[in-house]
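Why do we bother with a discrete structure alphabet at all? Because it lets us treat a fold like text: something you can write down, compare, and reason about line by line. To make this less abstract, here is a complete entry for Membrane protein. Read it the way you would read a sentence in a foreign language you are learning: slowly, and without expecting to understand everything at once.
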Amino acid sequence: MIEKKVWKINGFLGILIFLALLAATVFNVIASVKETGFTNIVLAAILLLLALIVSTGIQVVQPNQAKVLTFFGSYIGSIREPGIWMTVPFVAAKKISLKVRNFNSERLKVNDVDGNPIEIAAVVVIKVVDSAKAVFDVDNYEQFVEIQSETALRHVATKYPYDNYEEGDVSLRGNTEEVAEEIAKELQERLTLAGVEVIEARLTHLAYATEIASAMLQRQQANAILAARQKIVEGAVGMAQMAIQQLENSGTIELDDERKMAMINNLLVAIVSDRSAQPVLNTGTLY
């Protein structure tokens, strides 16, 4: 169901009509007492009934609020504008808040793409943009948002590893912005049915589950050391190649294969070692 506007007029005009009918009722009651006329009594009853009917159509709408109106079970429209309004009599009105609100999910325990148990939680900022869908298309839109938010969070968390040291690969810890955008996008697809707009989503908690936290910390440290060593080796090899290339291009010395190997070995030891290299002076020859 799609939201639509309902017929309405200024509510103060409705109050004025109500007071006028009420005054006419009192006047006819007084006239019936003075003249003891049956016509005045009937007219007074009719005017009082009309006043009551008019009063049922008066609606007060607060700022950032909508009222969804039904007339004997049929949806006739919604009022979004704040103020006092007069609309169709005998309507049933349901209030819907249009304020921006936060939903904080519980800490969910899920398995990432590698099968590691992790704890994850998120905050979702939402706003109702279609009051008719929020009332008629779902049973309880707040509960619907809660369940769908946790479902989307679980689904996205199982698509990526908690951590990854390879360049270009997406991980939950290393790409929180991308993960949050994907959660918001998937959640918007789910909540469109309820007339709810997802303004943003952000991860508020991300950690390994307690039972493997210690072991995974050691694994993270080992992976970090290994990744750092790989970078150092790549840089050392490049530096050794560049040094030999510059010596050969300058033409100052000529290096055979054995001397090249000895030089590369010395450079790699000096660069890759985590301790200061101790120079050894060779006063002889390799041959």
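What the structure line is telling us, in plain words: The mean pLDDT is 83. The radius of gyration is 38 Å.
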